Amino acid sequence: MKLPVDGGQNHKRYFPFKHWKHWQEVAALLVGYDFVAACISYFLALLLRFDMNFSQIPVQYLDTCLYSILPYALCCVVVFWLLRLYGSIWRFASFVELAQICLANGITMVVQLCWTSLFFGVRMPISYYVWGALFQLAFTLSIRFSYRILTLGRRRLKKNVAQCEPIMLVGAGSAGQMILRDIHQGGGDDEDNRVVCIIDDDPNTWGRFIEGVPVAGGRDTIPANVVKYGIRKIFIAIPSASVSDKKEILDICMETGCKVKQLPSIYQIVQQNVTVGSMRDISMEDLLGRPPIRVDLNNVFRFLQGKTILVTGGGGSIGSELCRQIAGHQPGKLIIFDVYENNAYALQLELLEKYPELDLVVLIGSVRDSRKLCALFSEYRPDVVYHAAAHKHVPLMEDSPCEAVKNNAIGTYKTAYAAMLYGCERFVLISTDKAVNPTNVMGASKRLCEMIIQSFDAEIKAGRAANLPRLFTHDSAADHGLTDFADAFRQAHTEYVAVRFGNVLGSNGSVVPIFKEQIEKGGPVKVTHPDIIRYFMTIPEAVSLVLLAGTYADGGEIFVLDLGSPVKIDTLARNLIRLSGYKPDIDIKIEYTGLRPGEKLYEEMLMKEEGLRKTDNNLIFISRPIQFETERFFRQLRELMDAAYANVDGAEIRRLLMEAVSTYHPAEKPS
Hints:
Strand content: 5-15%
Distance between the termini: 78 Å
Largest sheet: 9 strands, mixed
Number of domains: 3
CATH architecture of the largest domain: 3-Layer(aba) Sandwich
Shape: elongated
CATH topology of the largest domain: Rossmann fold
Structural class: alpha/beta
CATH superfamily of the largest domain: NAD(P)-binding Rossmann-like Domain
Strand order of the largest sheet: 10-9-8-11-12-13-18-22-21
Radius of gyration: 37 Å
Mean pLDDT: 79
């Protein structure tokens, strides 16, 4: 029903109404068609009743038909209009439109019966009403559904079956049927797709067909059917499946070497029309084997609203995501503090563009510079500090242990001390699972950080803030912008907490970006050991936990996230290769390089001495702090600081770390 178009003008000669839209022009044609169809239908029914012999039709029947037909046809148009049959998009006509047309023809048949019987007083033959209604239904249905049928037929004829890419569809439920229908209608970016088989775990569907496509079996038959049908793509359309089921199906599909796409989770597609465009590529997050951590952050953002928030290391992976989430929830002021100016500047541009009303301060500096920290706290008086600044690279810190102590431990101490002096309300340390029974300098330095914030919290609660040593190169109150230390110690009320989590997918220094870069170069992908395992979380999950810790805190806690089952790094590397469209060990080689200095095969989230206490979120726990003598710890920390700033050799730093951190046992260097 498409009209000839020439620059948008030629078709106007068919319609004198210049401002009509195309659908209105189509509707006008349908009105005319329905008017004629109504007239013809009942006249044909009368002819059929008398064996198609016009001369045998009685005069009273013929007169009644001819005199009533025009008003009846006009009535039909009105009924069709009231039932909105002139506003539908017939390219997408479905059962709803079919039901409306049947209803409209049923109503008009009753109108025809009443019109002839009551107004003209003539009882027409019963076959006249029945066949007239059937003819009218056939005419009105055919014109409306012919457009869709012709469109689908043209698309299917255009497809060269030999060149179509065969697709396996996993899921014969409603979502799968919508995807199948959309592909048949030519949906998606690539119209040369063809579903050749469907997989579903319901045995009742096996051996049956959906729109002509066979249901070939359950998930166990995926590899065999990939070979049988020459599958190149697999579409997974089971949004309501459990995480464990979805991961098992994903693992099977990934082993086939096919390109795999899936629908998002059910909560993302509620009230949306499921199409091929809804499909997305498989991401590493889908392969974690646990549901994503979802935290209600409304209370968190209410707590932060109107406050001055400081994020140290704000340009890093975790720090920048913290800034993004905080910026969108009306903080009084957001301060980004980072030593690396490029990341900080890029984040500044991003946040100001997205939140032009945001009161944003970006400062370049190091947490090792106590004068800079004191100037910052003195001027801006932050209410909440998220301390994300740290050296995190394990092998590099093994080679530079003094820097790990200076930046991680002493930098944390200086920042925590400044927070106490200037009346900060809450201090949240971002820690790591490598702080648990550490075997490397980086992990030991982060355990020192946890002990520092526990010591600060204990001393302040005990009213002994004055006992906290000033581990600075300057020591006077004036150097800190204060008239007197005594008032600051007396009014100290900062609550200190730590958040401990595992490896963060996609963060700076994590294995995923390194593996992706190696894959882009054609390999090999370098894995340290075939049995090495790690706990993983996403950046949004990590940030949610950090933010939540800031509101759950009573002071002195270490928050721990239940990360489910650990992931083998070897499996992670192989899945990344498959996600990139290659075959492990065939297209991209995997090379085992051996454990790096200070690295262990597995990480832990909890030391055996620590217990767990539940929070309102059943995936977030609070560990019971290990007790230690704070005075002795502060003496050891001062020794470590003096040794680090004297740049002593690594063996001496490790010896001092072992004295301060009883759970630190350096790993033997690989031969």
